Automatic annotation (TrEMBL):
InterPro entries associated with the record: MFS, MFS_dom, MFS_trans_sf, Sugar_transporter_CS
Domain of life from the UniProt record: Bacteria
Keyword terms of this UniProt record: Membrane, Transmembrane, Transmembrane helix
Classification via Gene3D superfamilies: MFS general substrate transporter like domains (1.20.1250.20)
Full protein name: MFS family permease
Primary location group: membrane
Annotated Pfam families: MFS_1
Location of the protein in the cell: Membrane
Domain Major facilitator superfamily (MFS) profile, first and last residues per copy: 24-423
UniProt membrane topology term: Multi-pass membrane protein
Coiled coil feature spans: none
Transmembrane segments: 41-59, 66-90, 102-126, 157-179, 185-202, 233-254, 274-296, 308-326, 332-357, 369-392, 398-419
Amino acid sequence: MTESTVDTLAPSVAAPGAVSPRKVFWATWFGWMLDGFDSSMYAYILVGALSELLPASGIEPSKANIGIYGGLLFSIFMLGWACSMIWGWAADRYGRVRIMCWTVLVYSLFTALCGLATGIVMFALFRFVAGFGIGGEWAAGTPLLQESVPENTRVRLAGWLHTATPTGLFLAAAVTLAIGSTLGWRGMFLLGILPALLIAYLRSNIPEPERSAAREQPSVAALFAGDQARTTWAAALMMACIIFGLWSSNFWAPTVISTKLVAAGATPAHAQEMGAVAGLITNVGTLIGCLLVPWLTTWLGSRRRTAVLFFIGGLISVVVCYEVAIEWLDSLTLFMVLLPVLGFFTNGVFGLFTIWLPEMFPSALRGSGSGFAFSMGRVLGAAGPTLIGALAARTGSFPLAISMLSLIYVVGLPLIALAPETAGKPLAK
């Protein structure tokens, strides 16, 4: 992408200067919230979409095939998300606000196009490009917030930024419950064009942060030189563990509930509604986790100790929810009761990394470093959904497959010690 190409999206933003921290927070928050809406909608309408697209592609829409192709499509979406690391470099080079606008345009357009897909290959292509756009919004938006607000509010606002994700998940579940059966899966995807409306507001109201307005051109190679290399790889591998854990656990809750209810004789419409309810319940815990992260990091006095708490909690909550409640006790009621705990640990942990990741990199590399770590984490974490689908098809049990792969949190514990401790330190310049 050339500089002249990027400039065509909109005229230049206002000159760098003071801007309300509240305005910057809500602009980045809404961008991330709409990301959450777009990316989670698939989980609620998975069965309906594949029930139509698989036969159109000459594939039987059996339970096993829905599991296999559903997991594969999750992974394709995440690989698109992983390829978005280029957006972080572009945000360092061309500006946070400008690149954030481009990412919003890409993910909203291609999410809407998913609703027009006529076969599984076309659908997979649109999901890949939508993921590419969604991943870039974080790489541009998170540094934008951290560099635009006062130091005394930075940690709190950065931690709260991830509350946008569960809010987007709430919205997707609520829309599914309210009008999902009326719109159908195609209509739900067509709603994905709405985030494009955010672009006009961003371009007219949010200037580039002063910290990033005038600096040397970044060298991506610096991410992999000296002490910074250890930080870069530690960040990327930690992100891989939590992304693998998230997409291999609570994002499958609606599918587990839907398939279990359909097998018990429930109608597909009722099963879809209960899957959406599960999403709402899970995200209560996620929202609480994100709200508490700034307090937890202060109370524990360490980013590392906070990460250990979430990694261990993630492992325990996945095993208890899926292996104990579903597999051993066969209790959907207990599973639903435990879902907020699952959301707290497996998704609330991202609130920590909206604080911690940008602190690990200097200003000239903040977008590139944060974007690389998050995106490379998605490359490695993308295997999770496909493995879940394959293991579930082989074992005949989604809960058992999910519980087996929760060991990824154990793998992640030693990586925490390799990352720099940034608690109590100002944002690097």
